[in-house]
Amino acid sequence: RGSRDSHQSPLRKDESPVVHGVSEMIVGVLGGGQLGRMLCQVASQMAIKVMVLDPLEHCPASALAYHHVVGSFDDSATVEDFAKRCGVLTVEIEHVDVTTLEKLEQQGVDCQPKASTIRIIQDKYLQKVHFLRHAIPLPEFMQIDDLEGAKRSGDLFGYPLMIKSRKLAYDGRGNAVAKSEEELSSAVTSLGGFDRGLYVEKWAPFVKELAVIVARARDNSISCYQVVETIHKENICHIVKAPADVPWKIRKLATDVGYKAVSSLEGAGIFAVELFLTADGQILLNEVAPRPHNSGHHTIESCYTSQFEQHLRAVVGLPLGDPSMKTPAAIMHNILGEDKGEPGFLLANQLIQRALSIPGATVHWYDKPEMRKQRKMGHITIVGPSMGILEAQLNSMLKEETSDVQ
Ligand code: ATP
Ligand code: MG
Ligand code: MG
Predict the structure, then answer these.
(1) Ligand 1 atom at shortest distance from the alpha carbon of 174
(2) Which parts of the sequence belong to the ATP-grasp domain (predicted)?
(3) ipTM score above 0.90
(4) CA distances from 333 to 29, 231, 394 (A)
(5) What angle do CA 173, 124, 55 make, to 5 degrees?
(6) How far is Cα 170 from Cα 338, in angstroms, rounded to an integer?
(7) 276 - beta bridge partners?
(8) How far is the CA of 116 from the centre of ligand 3 (A)?
(9) What is the b/e burial string over 148-181, where b = at least 16 CB atoms within 10 angstroms of the residue's CB?
């Protein structure tokens, strides 16, 4: 040891102050929904302080956060004030005020992932252009500004045609399908008209939807989770199966596309890459989320390091953990909102009661103050020795739900 640090000093050899615990960095999260809540859960385990910014006083993360600032993540002054109180700023939703994030970055605020990434991702059309430039396979697409343009895209891509709004899309709200030229106009109207900013995608004739969760550390090292299958109903994620039941070659291809897509973006954190698998074994990219994602909820119970812990590790600058599965299989089922009010809560509770008696099942309830149809209220993950067993357990849990409803 050198003479300088051989005596009393509170500084270490590299002269940085001694860190108490895992990290003393305050992590600021824009958004306090269920993703923020699950980030807070894992943060408490490591005593990492997570502050959330969300307009809802009783947002899902509020009860668990180190601090909850009630305010809009879409308001410049609010985001600036919030950012000044944090060591690193991250997001649980991509629909934030990105111009402010860019300004804050110029002032030296540490945003992970980078504002440039949020800017690309929050506009689905820009996102497609970006990935096309990086030679990532995706369904053909084009911008449309008027009905003539929409008709031309229909002539080019055929029907059904997927029309999407460029911004503020989630859970399929922002997508409309036109089955024929006659349906174009009503599909456009249902999305709020051309002024909203629309584009079209060629229909992807997928046989399965897959997703891969990819983590990137601050040193740009990348780590991928097992490829999963996601099952959507009416554009909204219902079930996730991990690992996906696809040949090894497809898993490899899906992981490669996910790796390449994330490599083209800047910043640390979790990224979720949604993919289509076609009958002829092609993988096409659907979209990327720059944050933990519904397709990775199973990792809480099924992986050595969950996507939420991995996200925290990545943005704080800790080494990434092990993403591999510690159980042979996992299945996740979203608890979606039903009817308004008490009948909906009753149904959800009946489902939860049945889940609680299934070995290997874990119930997550997000504690949202209100239930709305198709709103994500919670989820149930079952882990076990094989997908066949888990499917049977899930089916029996859901079958009883149907008989309850009748
Ligand atoms: P999320 O909640 O995942 O953010 P979103 O509102 O951004 O959803 P998308 O991911 O664009 O919506 O689409 C939702 C679903 O619609 C997809 O998972 C898929 O099932 C279907 N879909 C999207 N694009 C296409 C397409 N080009 N062809 C066929 N189906 C599609
Ligand atoms: Mg989306
Ligand atoms: Mg999606």
Answers:
(1) 6
(2) 128-316
(3) yes
(4) 26, 10, 8
(5) 55
(6) 18
(7) 209, 284
(8) 20
(9) ebbeebbeebeebbbbbbbeebebeebbbebeee
165-221 pLDDT, tens digit each? 999 988 888 999 999 999 999 999 999 999 999 999 999 999 999 999 999 999 999
Q: Give 201 Cα–ligand 1 centroid separation in angstroms.
A: 10
Q: What is the pLDDT of residues 24-66, one digit of tens each?
A: 999 999 999 999 999 999 999 999 999 999 999 999 999 999 9
**Ligand 1: residues within 6 Å at CB?**
139, 162, 164, 169-172, 174-175, 201, 203-204, 209, 232, 235, 274, 286-287
Query: 120 φ, ψ to 5°?
Result: -65, -45
206 CA closest ligand 1 atom index: 29
Give the DSSP H or E segment for 346.
helix 342-356
Exposure string of 379-393, with b = 16+ CB inside 10 Å and e = fewer, is bbbbbbeebeebeeb
* 167 CA distance to ligand 2 middle (Å): 9
**Rounded-to-integer distance, Cα 50 and Cα 36, Å:** 9
d(CA 349, CA 353): 6
Q: Best substitution site from 175, 297, 336 to test ligand 1's pocket, by max atoms within 8 Å of Cβ?
A: 175
Length of the chain: 406
Sign of CA dihedral 263, 264, 269, 274: negative
**Distance between CA 98 and CA 61 in Å, rounded?**
22
307-326 in b/e form (b: 16+ CB < 10 A) is: bbbbbbbbbbbbebbebebe
Task: Choose among 283, 285, 281: nearest CA to 273.
Answer: 285
Quick one: tokens of 3? 């003479």
Reported in sequence order, the residue ranges of 140-235 that DSSP labels E, i.e. its strands, are: 141-144, 161-165, 175-178, 198-202, 206-216, 222-224, 228-233
CA dist list (Å): 37 to 25, 51, 174: 18, 11, 25
pLDDT band at 144 (very low <50, low <70, confident <90, very high): very high
User: In this structure, which residue's CA is closest to atom 15 in ligand 1?
Assistant: 235
